[in-house]
Specification:
Layout lengths: L2 H9 L8 E2 H7 L5 H9 L12 E2 L12 H10 L4 E2 L2 E2 L2 H4 L4
Parallel strand pairs: 1-2
Antiparallel strand pairs: 3-4
């Protein structure tokens, strides 16, 4: 399984209403390649079943998204997350660790 596929399989484990980080996914893959994780998220073509909108930056910033950051914020809010000034407000409470 490719690195990208491994990233996508981990994404499927993140429940609605939770977020993780690029670094956390890299760590779960026994890697420090968080930028490669970001690249994998950018190449995700199955946004419905592989919820890359649930991956945010380590500083709680929502970051970018294939459909735009406004859409990412909207999806996260629909799942019950609080977003303020482009950041996940209660980051520690909604953080998902593998």
């Amino acid at each position: 399984m490719s690195f990208r596929q491994q990233c996508y399989e981990l994404l499927k484990l993140i429940p609605k209403g939770k977020v993780t980080t690029y670094a956390e996914i890299a760590k779960a893959l026994d890697s420090k390649a968080y930028r490669a994780v970001g690249s994998a998220m950018a190449k995700n073509r199955d946004l419905i079943h592989t919820p890359c909108h649930r991956v945010v930056r380590s500083n709680a910033d929502v970051g970018e998204y294939a459909l735009g950051s406004d859409k990412k914020i909207s999806l996260l809010q629909e799942e019950g997350l609080l977003i303020e000034n482009g950041k996940v407000k209660n980051f520690k409470e909604v953080f998902f660790s593998f």
